[in-house]
Amino acid sequence: MTPPPARRRRTGAKGAAPAHNLPRRGTVRRAQAITTYGVGSLIAVDHESFVVSGLDDAEGSWSIHESPRIHERRLARLLGVDYFRLPPASDDSSEDGLRVRRFPLMHSCPECTELQRHRDFNPPAGRSVCGTCEVDLVPSRFVVACEAGHLGEFPYWQWVHRSIDRGATTAGQCGGKLNLRTSGRTSSLRSILVSCTCGQAPEVSMEGSFRRNALKDLGLTCRGLRPWLGTSAPAQECGLPLRTLQRGSSTVWQPVLKSALSIPPWSDGRADPLAEHWDTLREYDNREHVEIYLKGVFKGKCPVPLDEVMALLDAEREEDPEGEAGPSFDHRYRALRNKEYERLRSGNDEREHSRDEQFICETPLGDQSVLGPLGVTGPMLVKKLREVRALKAFTRLADPDSTTESKEMPLSDSPLRWLPAMEVRGEGVFLRLKEDRLGTWEKATAVAARIERMRTAHQRVLEQRAGDPSRVVPSPATPRMVLLHTLAHVLINEWSLEAGYPAASLRERLYAADDMAGILVYTATSDSAGSLGGLVAQGEPDRLDRTIRSAVRRAEWCSSDPLCVETEASGTGSTNLAACHACVMLPETSCEHNNILLDRALLVGTPDDPDLGFFTNILEH
Prior knowledge:
Strand content: 15-25%
Shape: globular
Helix content: 10-25%
Distance between the termini: 67 Å
Largest sheet: 8 strands, mixed
Radius of gyration: 27 Å
Oligomer: single chain
């Protein structure tokens, strides 16, 4: 339910109109509005709890009129929007910001122990205190959610009265009031006690409320509630099983993020003024029709020369020859990665472009032959790059790596032509593995058997979480993917030690397919750590040679060995093998695959089979 305007929170960003009647209830960083506190997520401010509102134009999560636009044509076309917008900044000069609604509405008073809706406590305007006891109210610690993304209040009344005939009375009609107290004996759910003054049911604890079928046994299913959209959004038909969750649990909200690097011909920003017109321009087959359309739209003063417009249209059709409705989303996303890989291989010399160019990728000057014994080739110095990360949707009760399209919850109840996004500018190092040596290595029987164990375990996890077998996403685990993934992790760890970068400020981007075998390690933050030049310097062949050798030797030993290297399975759902937080795992912001599908044995081998490792020859010298 939407609280009165005076009780809404904003985080401080400029909006279309001043919202002086909306008090500031805290601040979040721009990046957090995409990755942590996006639309539909729960956010705690002091002793209060809120859900971030949706992106509807009328009651938007932030004002769209002054939120800065971001353009990245390739990603926008993939996601079916015209452009992106930055989240609002948090500063004292801002006039508006993220809108939120109070959730959960059920609160308890630690003094009188009453458990009821927030408004029933009669709190003073703009405050969250008990109108009788004048102490801070405590938001419900528990919420319920389903795998379709809906969110609701925990059914306290049904939980207390579960021992009596549910058909005798309905919620709130027993004549009593709910109370919540803690016994103080333990910190477990057994010490949280809920009762009703009607006297029809005994006092019960919250123990057992997190069982998978706990709410199903009460005859409760999801009613399709979407509190982040307010009372104006009708409930959706759902009926899926409900799960009890802690309000602050990470499973309550997970972002579905999609990203793309700005590469030529879209990386100089000159095509940005045409962002909202590309879909229309694609419908014209000849130059004359394009020229007539542009003259009509821009009153004869098109900001982009006609020759460039035609070149951009040709490039776009080349990237998507089957049309928007042809290949699947996953296929088009892989095609986007293919184009990035090709551009990283070919480079983009700085001397041939203006200062507006956002992608500069050059071949290092040193002798690359020193990398030959390592099986590494084609290092490139990415001196300038721009990555756009867009919040496509969100999910609940599932890890991001197992999300299927059917379980993604959109950010708005109505279609939008934009999505919230962040842009990151920085630098990086790109390298590839030699195809001939990689092909020989990945055909080895021991390698294939080891990867098959990981792939089977990961596929089992995906099937369990997908529910519908027809929508199961095949596991991406292949020998080269796991090898490249693990190599990227050890390189990030090594560079965090040698180059002074925090591991969380570096990020991997993997290019692993039948025709791709590359890694891009780049700065992943928008602060000063992203453009100091220290990472690019590590891409010179002599330094890269020393880094890879040192990283591989460091991966040979883990403080958890022999348990780590000899384990039969590790990680979430047994999706890792020889990998733990003491050796190759990274901060979550640095890893594309949520720290799964890792195995350092593919780098260095095992005590029983040292030849298993791709870099075993380094360890022999």
